[in-house]
């Protein structure tokens, strides 16, 4: 017999009485937005192997990048082995220290960045040539378009909600940009407010965090992808139209935050979202466990949060 009638009177697990866990992950599937590399790339494919109509079970295989939706990067994603203390912090996804993947943390409310960006983008009518007065230019002006988050901004956001970043904390930053996920992927990937080396070093060496995530397309700001003229030529063009400047001169390094965090054992999870707006401005327990794949330089995770002492 391959049919099992549902008998609800026999169900005994009372989920509503269990500890509430908030899911800070984004859903993913066939139409998951992917980091916008130049040129064609393989899509995410889910071919079926067995199906209920015949085999009484459903199976599928997956072919595609492991850096899709909410995912964790491993050091071997951006670093050579000689650049990493492999014994201490691991190198592949399978080697990452699980002690670094769970702990106390803060979910920082910086959703005002979403509002400021929307106001500026709409004022420019989405035209890069009209974004000049809103665009961030290092050493010249701060702005809501291509904004680099500063230590002072993170500190102010913490103080607003009475939060403190403590040693060995996880930090999750809610910029509000997850609201663009699958609704305007151009805005999500090409304009999100993100991190640069200054705030990265502050979080590591002054705050001594062990994990970082945020509602952004990558751990580094989109502008920190030198040479952008090759990696993201449309971005280099739009930045030139907006500022009259060369993006690779203004941001002359490739993913410095990725590499700094990875070298110092800090777990990095990209594309946070889900229930994050429900828990922003709170101190919670944060977890994100990678799967144990020796070949992987990254992989999807379920980024979760729950209240301290609730278990």
Chain oligomer state: single chain
**CA-based gyration radius:** 21 Å
Any low-confidence stretches, pLDDT <50, length ≥5?
none
| Strand runs, count | 11
Count of discrete alpha- or pi-helical segments spanning 4 or more residues: 11
CATH third-level topology of one domain: Glucose Oxidase, domain 1
What's the structural blueprint in terms of helices and strands?
Blueprint: E1 22-23, E2 48-50, H1 52-55, E3 59-60, E4 71-73, H2 86-89, E5 102-109, H3 112-123, H4 151-160, E6 170-174, H5 185-191, H6 197-206, E7 211-214, H7 228-231, H8 233-243, H9 247-250, H10 256-263, E8 267-270, H11 276-279, E9 282-287, E10 298-300, E11 304-306
Parallel strand pairs: 5-6, 6-7, 7-8
Antiparallel strand pairs: 1-11, 2-3, 4-8, 4-10, 5-9, 9-11
Brief synopsis:
The chain has 311 residues and is of the alpha/beta class. Helix content is 25%, strand content 14%. The strands form 2 sheets. A 9-stranded mixed β-sheet has the order 1-11-9-5-6-7-8-4-10. Strands 2-3 form a two-stranded antiparallel ribbon.
């Amino acid at each position: 017999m391959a049919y099992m009638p549902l008998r609800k009177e026999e169900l005994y697990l009372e989920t509503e009485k269990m500890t509430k866990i908030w899911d800070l992950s984004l859903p993913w599937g066939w139409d998951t937005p992917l980091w916008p590399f130049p040129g064609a790339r393989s899509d995410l494919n889910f071919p079926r192997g067995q199906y209920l109509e015949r085999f009484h079970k459903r199976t599928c295989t997956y072919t595609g990048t492991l850096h899709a939706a909410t995912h964790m990067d491993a050091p071997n994603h951006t670093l050579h082995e000689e650049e990493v203390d492999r014994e201490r912090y691991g190198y592949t996804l399978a080697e990452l220290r699980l002690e670094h993947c769970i702990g106390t943390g803060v979910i920082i409310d910086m959703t005002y960045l979403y509002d400021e960006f929307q106001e500026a983008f709409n004022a420019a009518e989405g035209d890069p040539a009209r974004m000049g007065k809103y665009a961030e230019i290092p050493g010249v002006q701060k702005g809501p378009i291509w904004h680099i988050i500063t230590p002072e901004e993170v500190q102010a956001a913490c103080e607003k909600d009475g939060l403190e970043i403590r040693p060995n904390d996880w930090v999750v930053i809610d910029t509000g940009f997850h609201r663009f996920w699958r609704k305007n992927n151009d805005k999500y990937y090409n304009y999100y407010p993100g991190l640069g080396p200054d705030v990265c070093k502050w979080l590591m060496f002054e705050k001594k965090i062990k994990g970082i995530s945020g509602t952004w397309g990558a751990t580094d700001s989109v502008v920190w992808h030198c040479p952008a003229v090759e990696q993201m030529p449309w971005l280099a063009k739009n930045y030139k139209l907006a500022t009259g400047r060369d993006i690779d001169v203004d941001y002359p390094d490739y993913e410095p935050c990725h590499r700094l965090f990875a070298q110092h054992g800090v777990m990095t999870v990209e594309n946070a979202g889900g229930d994050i707006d429900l828990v922003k401005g709170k101190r919670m327990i944060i977890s994100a466990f990678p799967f144990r794949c020796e070949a992987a330089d990254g992989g999807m995770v379920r980024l979760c949060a729950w209240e301290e002492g609730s278990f």
